[in-house]
Every structure is written in structure tokens, then in C-alpha cells.
Design goal:
The protein has 183 residues and is an alpha/beta fold. Helices cover 51% and strands 13% of the residues. It is built from 7 helices and 5 strands; from the N terminus they run H-H-H-E-E-E-H-E-H-E-H-H. It has a 3-stranded parallel β-sheet with strand order 3-4-5. Strands 1-2 form a two-stranded antiparallel sheet. Strand 1 and strand 2 form a beta hairpin. The longest helix has 17 residues. The termini are far apart.
Length: 183
């Protein structure tokens, strides 16, 4: 199903009207040039094209690594975590959140997506486009809030893992989320 959503959404992003709308939104909220905004959309579209059809199933591979003793082996499998949170920065309002979101969905997770409020209109439009192209509306929770509210939400939820894709001051919050998840 997600392969088909990727295919149809990538195809939609070739439509000049949709393409221009997304590019205009990126320019409006970030101040990027037309070329920079187009390139962000092009990278995102190529990602979706790459995972069209049944390509998603190749992501869910495991691995085997021989150990340093006879008969010892490490096995790893990519399993869903369940609920995950994606907190995306402002400087790439389409590319970073969409790639992280799709990776999470591909592995069977239920993501909560929080994009910087100054640029979230871009992902809002993209989610609507993806819903129009078959993504079930209940697959993603999209939240509009400030950083303090999101931090409180994450501290209360005690995540199993936290990754930060933001500037240095935000990394302190990530350390608090990690500490909360171990208690």
C-alpha cells in the first residue's frame, strides 16, 4: 500500500500546479530561492519514486554479523517500535520530515510528526496530498504546537529512543528525553 502511495504522490509532484504550490510554500516560509526550493522538492520526489511499488519490502531486511568467537553471531531485525515521534527542524520543511516520516511508516510505526510551526504549512499540504493519494488518515498524527508543549509530551510518553536533527540548544532536550525513557 505504501509503495502505491509513494508512486501516486511522486507522480502528483510532477504536476506543475502542485509542484508550484509546494515550491511557493517553501519559499514563503524559509526565504529559499526558487532553485533551492525546487531542489528540495526534487530530492523528495526522487525518494518517493525510489520506494514506489514493492521496493519498501527490501527495507525490512535483517542482518547477521559473525562474532569474534567460534559459533558466535549477532542477528538484527528491523522491527516496528510502535509509536514514534519525529521532531523536524525549520530549514528543510519538506525533505527532512517527509523522509523521516516515510521511513517510520515503511517499518510499520505510528508516527507523531511535529514540524517547526513556522514552516509546518509545507508538511500540512504534503500530508493532504498523500491522503489524496491513498495514505490512510489515521497512519500519522500531525501536531502543531510550540517546543515546550512537545517537550512535555515527549517527557510524559517516555520514548524508547530519541534522535535529534536540530541545532545545539535542542540537543539538551534530547538528552532529557533519553533520560526520561530509562526511568
Amino acid at each position: 500500500m505504501l509503495g502505491d502511495v509513494c508512486f501516486r504522490t511522486a507522480h502528483s509532484l510532477h504536476n506543475p500546479t502542485i509542484q508550484d504550490q509546494i515550491i511557493d510554500e517553501i519559499i514563503c516560509v524559509t526565504g529559499k530561492t526558487n532553485t533551492q526550493a525546487y531542489n528540495e522538492l526534487a530530492v523528495t520526489r526522487k525518494f518517493l519514486e525510489n520506494f514506489s511499488g514493492d521496493q519498501v519490502r527490501f527495507l525490512a531486511k535483517g542482518f547477521n554479523t559473525p562474532g569474534d568467537h567460534n559459533g558466535q553471531m549477532s542477528n538484527g531485525f528491523r522491527w516496528p517500535y510502535g509509536g514514534v515521534a519525529i521532531v523536524a527542524p525549520f530549514n528543510f520543511p519538506l525533505e527532512i520530515p517527509l523522509l523521516q516520516l516515510m521511513g517510520s511508516l515503511f517499518m510499520g510505526n505510528k508516527p507523531l510528526l511535529k514540524v517547526d510551526s513556522r514552516v509546518s504549512i509545507v508538511m500540512d499540504s504534503m500530508l493532504k496530498l498523500m491522503h489524496d493519494n491513498g495514505l490512510p488518515e489515521n497512519n500519522v498524527d500531525f501536531i502543531h504546537c510550540n517546543g515546550k508543549v512537545m517537550e512535555h509530551l515527549l517527557l510524559q510518553s517516555k520514548p524508547r529512543m530519541a534522535r535529534c536533527m536540530a541545532r545545539a540548544p535542542t540537543r539538551g532536550r534530547t538528552a532529557r528525553w533519553r533520560a526520561a525513557s530509562t526511568t
